[in-house]
Specification:
- It is a single chain.
- The protein is 2% helix and 46% strand.
- With 217 residues, it is mainly beta.
- It folds into two domains: 31 residues, no CATH class; 168 residues, Jelly Rolls.
- The strands form three sheets. Strands 5, 7, 8, 10, 13 and 15 form a six-stranded antiparallel beta sheet that branches. A five-stranded antiparallel beta sheet has the order 6-9-14-11-12, with no helix packed on it.
- The model has no long low-confidence stretch (mean pLDDT 90).
């Protein structure tokens, strides 16, 4: 017997078939359908000249990392898609940041990423997808928490527990398009974009998978 619940027919039972559907979804999927969630990244950063500046935010004693406008800074992160993910739907990474200077200009970030499944090869650079995003800043943005999206990442044969490796760079000293060069009024003057965190929006469809390794260990 199959039972169906929807707004048109109410509760209907059929002799043929089996299962329990709510508004066209299996009962275990219906509660999660079209629901978004945040996925936070595991983050590393560049070394030497590419290392972000780590110092206090204003007079709070709260330390955070800052991109400088006069050097090329890099940050790296890894996301592992949850077992709740609606496989096949796009995911949307973004950065939460704070503009620190009372000035105007464009801040530009280059990025590159690759998906990798268990038992698959993480490709060399020519197998990654790359792009660039920017934000136009002015004095009204100073100290505001803002979000900058890197667009959508479309899966290609990926599944629950697939991993995204993601690189973000601000080429402050070599990209002429990055014109946000106003100084921060405390700490390191050139460190004028603070990073709170990176996360990724994804759509969930279920509570999890019925197997520990969806595509095999």
């Amino acid at each position: 017997m199959k039972t169906v619940i929807n707004n048109t027919q109410g509760v209907v039972s059929f002799i043929e078939g089996n299962g329990f559907e709510i508004e066209g979804k299996e009962y275990h999927e219906a509660a999660f359908d079209q629901r978004w969630d945040d996925l936070y990244a595991y983050i590393d950063q560049g070394t030497g000249p590419a290392q972000l500046t780590y110092e206090a935010y204003r007079n709070t004693g709260f330390y955070m990392r800052f991109f400088r406008h006069n050097q090329d800074d890099a940050i790296f992160m890894t996301y592992q898609l949850p077992h709740m993910w609606d496989v096949g739907t796009a995911v949307y990474p973004h950065m939460h940041y704070i503009a620190m200077a009372s000035g105007s200009g464009n801040v530009v970030f280059d990025y590159a990423y690759s998906w990798v499944n268990v038992h698959s090869v993480l490709p060399a650079a020519n197998g990654w997808i790359s792009g660039s995003v920017s934000a136009s800043l002015n004095p009204s943005h100073q100290y505001q928490q803002s979000a900058l999206t890197f667009g959508e990442m479309l899966p290609d044969g990926n599944h629950e527990s697939s991993i995204i490796v993601f690189k973000v760079e601000r080429r402050g000293s070599t990209n002429a398009s990055d014109t946000y060069s106003a100084s921060k009024d405390h700490g390191t003057a050139a460190a004028n974009v603070g990073v709170l965190f990176f996360d990724l929006h994804y759509q969930k469809i279920k509570a999890g998978t019925v197997t520990q390794f969806p595509e095999g260990p």
